[in-house]
Design goal:
The chain has 189 residues and is an alpha/beta fold. Helices cover 32% and strands 25% of the residues. Strands 1, 2, 3, 4, 5, 6 and 7 form a 7-stranded mixed β-sheet that branches. The longest helix has 19 residues.
Amino acid sequence: MIILASGSPRRHELLKKLCSNFKIEVSDAVEVQNNLEPKLLAVENAKIKAKAVADKNPGNIVIGADTIVVLNGKIFGKPKNSADAEQMLAELADKKHEVISGIAIICADGKIFTDFEVTEVFFGEMTAEEIKNYVATGEPLDKSGSYALQGGATKFIEKIHGDWSNVVGLPVYRLKKLAQSAGINFEES
């Protein structure tokens, strides 16, 4: 059985592009916030989430993911509140930033495979009023970097370079390649 260690509806929908037969178990792992380079931090948190679920479900394949937003080395996680979301968006406005997703697969035999994906996102200008109105929708409050590419933030995004599914929260192509490296065929699972 394949288990996705995430409560994110966006990750569920993206995994369905690869695999129709999986179950969901939200990880209760506490993410680390340390001085690791952002790519390594995203991978470490993906691994921690997957391991917490794998420990409760031995003999299964578990997929974990973690997505962060990075601007000039500063990591933007999920906002603490509306004011924090507004501050994040104001910092991201009219700039290029990176969205990094770490992914981890823990195989039925306990072997762990990890990788990451990086996508560049270019935000256009945003007025304080536009930011305030977007935050008032509530959408940014549970998103890394305080925005959803597939949601209301679309109107602020000038362009992206890289995998759009990564920005949504699960880099589908990278996950497919990682699964192949691990000897997993999603179509047979």
